[in-house]
Amino acid sequence: MAPQRRIDLVLDSVKRLLRIGATANLLNLLQKQHPADLAQIFSEFPEKDRQATFTLLADRNGRLAMEAVSELGPEAGATLLATRPAEEIAKLAQEIPSDDAAALIDHLPDELSAAVLDLMRPDESGVVEHLLEYQEQTAGRIMNPHVFALDEEMTVGEAITELQTNRDVEMVFYLYVVDERRHLVGVTSLRRLLLVSPETPLKRIMTADLISARVETDQEEVAQQVASYNLLAIPVVDEENKLVGVITVDDIIDVIKDEATEDIYRLAGVAGDERAFTPARESLRKRLPWLGVNLATAFMAASVVALFEGTIERITALAVFMPIVAGMGGNAATQTLTVIVRGIALGELTWGNSRQALVKEAIVGLGNGVVLGLIAALVAWGTRGNPVLGLILCAAMIINMFVAATAGTLVPLGLRAANIDPALASSVFITTLTDVFGFFSFLGLATLFLRYLVPMA
Amino acid sequence: MAPQRRIDLVLDSVKRLLRIGATANLLNLLQKQHPADLAQIFSEFPEKDRQATFTLLADRNGRLAMEAVSELGPEAGATLLATRPAEEIAKLAQEIPSDDAAALIDHLPDELSAAVLDLMRPDESGVVEHLLEYQEQTAGRIMNPHVFALDEEMTVGEAITELQTNRDVEMVFYLYVVDERRHLVGVTSLRRLLLVSPETPLKRIMTADLISARVETDQEEVAQQVASYNLLAIPVVDEENKLVGVITVDDIIDVIKDEATEDIYRLAGVAGDERAFTPARESLRKRLPWLGVNLATAFMAASVVALFEGTIERITALAVFMPIVAGMGGNAATQTLTVIVRGIALGELTWGNSRQALVKEAIVGLGNGVVLGLIAALVAWGTRGNPVLGLILCAAMIINMFVAATAGTLVPLGLRAANIDPALASSVFITTLTDVFGFFSFLGLATLFLRYLVPMA
Q1: Is residue B340 part of a domain?
Q2: Residue A342 domain-assigned?
Q3: How large is the average pLDDT for residues A167-183?
Q4: What 3-state class would DSSP assign to B231?
Q5: What's B171's domain CATH number?
């Protein structure tokens, strides 16, 4: 059965059991679900049912309830948790790995999160507070500080015994090896332990050349390393190369998704942390400033048109065709911008090979301009009976699509060189630029060649 | 040292060694690199150097050369390979896992790929051809058919021996268990083998309830399962539940990146397989049709303006302000569309909770319209001295931003309900819609209230 179909069935049953108040059966059903499925069920519930179900489950099986909350993501998870008293949250937070707990607590309202940290066991709250000291979106912030490591002086037999006694270790496909002061010195695998005799020193079967991340490394860079070296986990070290945590590939997948979302959003002028169900008031607050900036730039484009009001007064057909020049430039710019921004994000486009990309985009821009400009010219000529109007439309489209292509390439590359996120060269911004250029080239040419246009008016 | 910085240094050395023809040193340096780093180096080289370096490395260390080509991705990898004779490609293809080989061979020119398959060992080409029979973007197409499995009748001790003798098995963190007819019946882990005595039957420590994918499952759905259940690999079964392959999380990461790229691209009207360095001619061929469609819709918007040419002739100021109404609607629509399309892609937005999203977007649209409309009205009144022009501008902006919000929500949700990719409701398309509505509402209102506007002209 397709997973979504199965969840829909479970969802129906949960709703029914909730409605008839069959608590025992409901708990039974909930406890059989994977945390990820529970998260999906929570997210499809209306607010009230979500809280009722969560409360019920949290009383019976705190760990499962918290794992589900964690799968909801820190924002939605914290919103759900925030309805519970601080004592309960403090108790529940201890059921999940400290990195997940830290992410949730960080998203609680300030007062509540302080209260929760106060009420947690000192050892646990210490770990969480330590994690929260790292900057957001760094390796330190997303790592799991409970990392299992073997001493380099051990034999393979001792290592296996160590693994057998530490049954609650989370990640064991890579076995990191440290010296007596916990400096990271190597890595081996469970598999390799099985291929040699128990007396073999660990040192002999470990790989000393391993890839690690520093606590302050940006999470996007960490994700790129894990992805390009096909790792399942990456160890995190401090400035002295001491092993302080591990980031597993499932967390990396979340980073990759979040970074892709951020890029998609920025291209459209949306804040990275907005989601489909962010409350309307908050969405409004987040989107308005960006639209405000765009309103200002739209007035700039309008003032270009105003420069040529005299020309439009004589030939109103210009008002009909000018949006075509501006709009097609905007569309072409959006295409170029998207390819360039994504190329940078995927690491395919670097400063070294950017000239090649610029030349290519310029050619494509000119090509598009010539083909579409000619078509537009023919339509304008045909409908208005004036070949000069067609020629001017064609010329303006070629100019504007060339500008669109070069700006769509240079602006994100320039931002990147200045260490600013290239996705901020959003299509919303670039299209304003093509509006200005489009209006200016079209109306400017029309004003220049006004005497050839007038007879038709 | 940051990875990019290290690669830059290696790149400089490689270039220098290549220039002075120090082949032995060059090979030495290349062979020390990780395939992913080699791929990065290849991609930063000009065409000629890339081929020279690849040829050199392929002669010495075919496997490493092919792993690097594989890391380049199938398109770029196949382009590089295609410069070599078919015999050599056939030999090299056997150095890498069949799924990677299949992806590369699939992207070679038809004639060459047929020749390569003819020249490969029959057992190898058989596997590759079998993989290529699966539909693109399905689990069957991206799985590795060499999957290690244990017989359910084994004991733990026998399983460990089996692992020790199969040294070249790729993926061993999950150990899949099959019955005598190779039906997938369970899963266990290397870790669990170590925690019990060797006589324990495998059946007793395996989990029978495991998540698998069918060969025909869409790769995006597989990726969602792996991501939401935090898996490191997922077994692939045929219609009889026989184990036929495995997909590891590194391939899933590639799928997630590709699907995100596809979404970003579609929103901008770019073909999913275009990259920053796709040749200009091909990019032109891929982008022109979409721009052509948009030219047609732009003419539609223009014809709306043409309806009101009489009004514009009397009040040219309308031509100045009309792009503001259309443009701001377009920007607001892009924001809404992006949030909705991403919400659908991330699985947060379903049919069940879409009403809530629509209400929210409608409120945000109205709110944006009122705030920005009032500001625009004040500017128009201030610069043109006509309050009625300001009022009409404000009303048109409110209408258009409301239309933008509802269309930006309903169009992708509708496409999704019709099983069409919602990202195809690209911002390029939606903004044309807001152009039409923007021009119509603004110029229509102006025509209706013409007598209040004329005094100012």
Answers
A1: yes
A2: yes
A3: 84
A4: coil
A5: 3.10.580.10
Give the closest-approach CA distance of A38 to chain B in angstroms: 11
Closest residue in chain A to residue B292, using alpha carbons only: A372
Contacts of B313 in chain A (CB under 8 A): 313, 316
Looking at the structure, tell me whether residues A97 and A206 fall in a common domain. no
Question: Residue B356: its chain A contacts at CB < 8 A?
Answer: 277
* Whether residue A250 is found in the same domain as residue A303: no
Mutate to test the interface with B, among A264, A381, A383 (most CBs of B within 10 A): A264
Q: Searching chain B, which residue's CA lies closest to the CA of residue A46?
A: B353
pLDDT at A456: 47
CA distance B261 to chain A (A): 7
Contacts of A339 in chain B (CB under 8 A): 265, 270, 274-276, 283
Asked, for residue B398, whether it belongs to a domain, the answer is yes
Provide the CATH number for the domain around residue B26: 1.25.60.10
Residues B333 and B435 in one domain: yes
Q: Do B227 and A172 touch (CB under 8 A)?
A: no
Inter-chain residue contact B327 with A301, CB threshold 8 Å: yes
* Residue B273 forms part of a structural domain: no
Judge: A40–B342 Cβ closer than 8 Å, yes or no: no
Closest partner residue to B269 among A275, A331, A439, by Cβ? Answer: A331
Q: How far apart are CA B271 and CA B265, in angstroms?
A: 6
Q: In chain B, which stretches have pLDDT less than 50?
A: 1, 456-457
Range of the domain at B395: 280-456
Assess whether A421 and A323 both reside in one domain.
yes
Q: What is the pLDDT of residue A447?
A: 95
Question: Are residues B162 and B123 part of one domain?
Answer: no
Contact A221 B350 (CB under 8 A): no
pLDDT given for residue B2 in this prediction = 58
Give yes or no: residues A120 and A171 share one domain: no
Contact B135, B141 (CB under 8 A): yes
Half-sphere exposure of B298 (CA within 13 A, CB side): 27
Q: Which of A24-38, A367-381, B177-191, B270-284 has the lowest mean pLDDT?
A: B270-284
Verify that B183 and B326 share a domain, yes or no: no
Residues B302-361: pLDDT tens digits?
A: 999 999 999 999 999 999 999 999 989 998 998 999 899 888 888 778 777 788 889 999
pLDDT digits (tens, 9 = 90+) for B227-277: 989 899 999 999 999 999 999 999 999 999 888 888 888 888 887 778 787
Instruction: Indicate yes or no: CB of A163 within 8 angstroms of CB of B194.
Output: yes
